[in-house]
Write a structure and sequence with these properties.
The protein is of the alpha+beta class and about 775 residues long. About 45% of the residues lie in helices and about 15% in strands. The radius of gyration is 29 Å and the shape is globular.
Length: about 775
């Protein structure tokens, strides 16, 4: 990124272009608050008022066709802005503006536009204008539930301007990133264009991706190409020659994928080391962020060029001339990862070429989805050839002289210098990495700010990898704005500027550190802890095929909303369960939570309910989960993590997905809700005197049903109604009739309820048994 610090001086052209791109449509936001005028002129007015030093009033002409045709360097920035504006949205934007349209037209949720596998089209849902805050932002609603948006816009605009005035202006880097962060804070739920048939692009995603595209075009440094490109793009129809010109690559899409994450995070083998899990997962979140930041800085780009970064994955838009640098960057990072972690973590980095034509809509499609798929395939191939960048393969195969074993992760320790011995009731030997992650978890938990400074390469412990990349990382509750930081992140709060000096923000799941004994002892019934895992079904297909108009800004918006849910809203969802859970990870499109076993089914349903509300109950966007209960308190976390992962992938993700696995059985969410209701009904009757022997009888009946089903090779959906499996029916009728604790007028209700759920009756009974098992709390 540009690296001018104290004393801005005269801005360079690339700096002016970046600010112009971020602000060229900010007038649309101002219109929503009631300001009169065309949005290009309002945008220029805003830039003149708040960023006069940037000299970017040319944004007033970005919808003025007469200006595009002028040649010469004086119009270069405007032309790049105009081209980038069009490529971001996938089409040439007309200057037409419908008076009053913004006051009545909210942002159409991009989730409403997703459709895969021929499923039913989702009903449209709309977001009210809101800040990027899980506590404030509302789930999308139907259009007829929304009236005048002016009060929402006025409130947002007032707060936006107040925050703009807090931006420090003594450092170009911080000023740019602060502006982009504020646009993210206030414009993620504001539509970009409202005069089109579907206002489904957020203003933030449009402005950010416009900036990313413009940076690339500027870096190509070809004025003749820019003149020719804008000339062609203004045409109503393209000739074959024009189309060939548009199909020449001028960009690359860089993908990064950290592999080994699962083993790296869940490798702890002792229950006493479980607090290090959060340290490892949080550390990897930051590592992805810092690696992406490192790459854009190496390429001389801005942070706006990071299109997506979450869950150990990132995508960066770069100019074509950056392709020759990728191999060196990849080799450098991989070698540093190997030096730090051996072979535990690997970063796949690759790229695909993109042309202007790939950004443009044709018959409702662009080339971006296909190119994204090509890049994913290239990254997968790189994973199969891990560490090929390292010439000296002897490093992998040297004999190891083991002097001890780390009690936390089981890694062999080759020398006493690698050992850290913790004194206590017994000496515990740990490797410096495990100790470092435990320390990282302690110092980062609950902190308000993450400070990133230039590093000198001498940091040790958990800081070493960041130091290798040229950064120093620290956490704080109170941050001085005069400390020489490159960037200051506000954590779990979209606070920018002011006394904190924050220039960016991020959200992540924060539930506090817990130990397994405490989680088990707080359980109802059997004293055990468990693991809940879940992720979005068919996410790759959604990005490849699901969007009706897969433009860059729409892909960006879909990604950002997923991150908003899993990194932001998950904190709100988990708030009332915090005492009973240990949130190891939630971000990107998945989550991993350890907790008191009896809480996890309820939490799983709450997460799913919130997810379908946020995505507008779209049948094409579903979630699957799995819950596993530890056989004992001392059971290794890594082993249960493997089990629940296998159940998620091999059971919940098979067939139609949109399912949950509990007590080893997969079922749809609606069926799981029925199971919960039947479980609660049996619990209430037991409290009234129903014998626990009734549970045993129900298991016998289910076993009879199950054996007949298998013998006749029938699927459960048919078996429960098939006479060949029908013997269980009259035994159930007889059992219910003889049960004196069930009232006569309720016997038919009981019989129907159990009959309808005969296929999952074993889960119901087992669930009740675990809840009713009396067990004394212990240390495991």
């Amino acid at each position: 990124m540009f690296n001018r610090g104290i004393g801005l001086g005269k801005p360079t052209d690339i700096e002016r272009l970046r600010f112009a791109c971020l602000l060229h449509d900010i007038g649309k936001f101002w219109q929503g608050a009631g300001e009169k005028g065309r949005h290009p002129e309002l945008s220029a007015r805003f830039a003149r008022q708040f960023f006069p030093e940037m000299d970017i009033t040319f944004v007033a002409d970005h919808h003025n066709p007469s200006q595009y045709r002028y040649k010469g360097e004086g119009y270069k920035l405007l032309k790049i802005l105009v081209i980038s504006d069009w490529l971001s949205s996938g089409e040439r934007e007309e200057s037409t503006e419908t008076s009053g349209g913004r006051k009545l037209t909210p942002l159409l949720s991009i989730f409403s536009e997703v459709r895969i596998l021929g499923r039913e089209k989702a009903e449209e849902r709309y977001f009210l204008p809101s800040v990027y805050d899980p506590l404030e932002a509302k789930d999308p609603v139907k259009l007829n539930e929304i009236t005048d948006l002016t009060p929402y816009y006025k409130n947002l605009w007032k707060r936006f301007v107040q925050d703009i005035e807090k931006i420090r202006k003594d450092d170009m880097n911080k000023m740019f990133e602060s502006l982009m962060s504020l646009i993210k804070k206030y414009c993620l739920f504001v539509p970009s264009a409202v005069y089109k048939s579907k206002p489904d692009i957020s203003l933030y995603d449009h402005l950010k991706t416009t900036c990313a595209i413009a940076d690339c075009l500027f870096k190509e440094n070809d004025s003749e190409y820019i003149d020719k490109l804008i000339e062609i793009l203004t045409m109503e129809e393209y000739t074959e020659e024009d189309e060939e010109f548009l199909k020449n690559d001028k960009f690359i899409l860089i993908g990064g994928d950290i592999s080994g994450i699962q083993k790296f995070i869940y490798t702890v083998i002792s229950k006493g080391a479980v607090k290090g899990l959060k340290g490892r997962s949080y550390y990897l979140e930051l590592l992805s962020e810092i690696v992406a930041r490192h790459i854009v800085e190496e390429l001389g780009l801005s942070i706006a060029n990071v299109i997506y970064c979450a869950g150990g994955h990132f995508f960066i838009l770069a100019p074509l001339n950056a392709r020759d640098k990728i191999a060196k960057i990849r080799e450098d990072i991989v070698k540093k990862l190997f030096a730090m972690y051996g072979g535990k973590l690997y970063l796949s980095i690759d790229f695909v070429g993109l042309s202007p034509f790939d950004f443009l809509l044709k018959d409702g499609k662009t080339g971006l989805a296909e190119k994204w798929g090509d890049l994913s395939n290239k990254l997968s191939m790189r994973k199969k050839k891990k560490f090929e960048e390292i010439v000296n393969y002897e490093d992998f195969f040297q004999p190891v002289n083991v002097v001890n074993i780390c009690r936390s992760c089981g890694s062999p320790l080759e020398s006493e210098s690698e050992m850290i011995i913790e004194e206590g009731e017994e000496e515990i030997v740990k490797c410096d990495l495990c100790k470092g992650f435990e320390e990282f978890a302690k110092i980062s938990t609950g902190k308000k700010y993450l400070i990133v400074k230039d590093g000198d390469g001498t940091s040790v412990g958990w800081k070493k990898m960041f130091s290798y990349l040229g950064y120093d990382i620290s956490f704080s509750d109170i941050q001085s704005k005069d400390d020489g930081a490159k960037v200051i992140y506000s954590i779990n709060k979209s606070e920018i500027g002011g006394k904190s000096g924050a220039t960016s923000f991020f959200y992540h799941l924060e539930t506090g550190l817990k130990d397994l004994d405490s989680l088990a002892n707080m359980s109802e019934g059997i004293k055990r802890w468990g693991i809940l895992r879940g992720d979005v079904d068919n996410l790759g297909r959604i990005f490849r095929e699901g969007l009706a108009k897969p433009t860059l800004s729409r892909i960006s918006n879909l990604s950002n909303l997923m991150v908003f849910f899993f990194s932001g809203k998950m904190n709100k969802i988990c708030e009332s369960y915090k005492e009973f859970i240990y949130g190891v990870y939630s971000g990107g499109d998945d989550f991993f939570i350890i907790g008191s076993w009896n809480i996890l089914p309820e939490l799983a349903m709450e997460i799913r309910r919130s997810f379908i509300d946020f995505t507008g109950n779209n049948p094409s966007i579903t979630l699957s989960s799995a819950i596993s209960i530890a056989p004992s308190v001392a059971y290794p976390v890594y082993r249960l993590a493997e089990i629940v992962g296998e159940e998620l992938e091999n059971k919940a993700k098979k067939g139609g997905k949109n399912s949950i696995v509990f007590l080893g059985k997969v079922m749809g969410w609606e069926k799981f809700h029925e199971v919960e209701k039947l479980k609660e009904k049996i619990e209430r009757e037991i409290e009234k005197g129903l014998s626990k022997g009734f549970l045993h009888k129900m298991l016998v009946i289910h076993s009879l049903y199950n054996n007949r089903m298998k013998k006749n090779k029938l699927p459960p959906s048919i078996a429960k109604y098939d006479n060949r499996c029908g013997r269980w029916r009259w035994i159930l009728t007889y059992t219910i009739a003889r049960e004196r604790h069930i009232k006569k007028e309720e016997k038919d209700i009981w019989r129907r309820l159990i009959s309808d759920n005969i296929d999952v009756l074993d889960v119901v009974v087992r669930w009740v048994e675990l809840l009713k098992r009396e067990e004394v709390s212990s240390g495991g």
